[in-house]
Amino acid sequence: GSPPAAPPAAGGGNADNAPRPPDQARAAACDTARHNLALLEKDGPVAKAGPDGKNVLLEGEARARELDRARKAVAYLCD
């Protein structure tokens, strides 16, 4: 009589999928992501806080990377 095997941990979420924030937090994050994307898509200058806390102007390649990141955030958070 060996004891029965323990059932798998409750939750049922896939470990490979990154955990998603709860709906309310996700809605707020979605709004922020959309706002950031809209700013980056405009022609005006966009600044981002740098490591020293001072604003750094995003231009060229850096701006393109941020734009890509913003689009991915919107796609992930706003479905």
Helix content bin: 40-55%
Name the overall outline: elongated
Please count the beta strands (DSSP E, at least 2 residues each). Answer: 2
Characterize the main sheet: 2 strands, antiparallel
Task: Give the topology.
Layout: H1 23-41, E1 46-49, E2 55-58, H2 60-77
Antiparallel strand pairs: 1-2
Description:
This protein has 79 residues and is mainly α. It has a domain at 23-44 and 55-77. It contains two helices and two strands; from the N terminus they run H-E-E-H. It has helices at residues 23-41, 60-77, and strands at residues 46-49, 55-58. It has a two-stranded antiparallel sheet with strand order 1-2. Helix 1 (23-41) runs antiparallel to helix 2 (60-77).
Keywords:
mainly alpha; 79 residues; 10% strand; elongated
Explain briefly what this protein structure is.
With 79 residues, the chain is mostly helical.
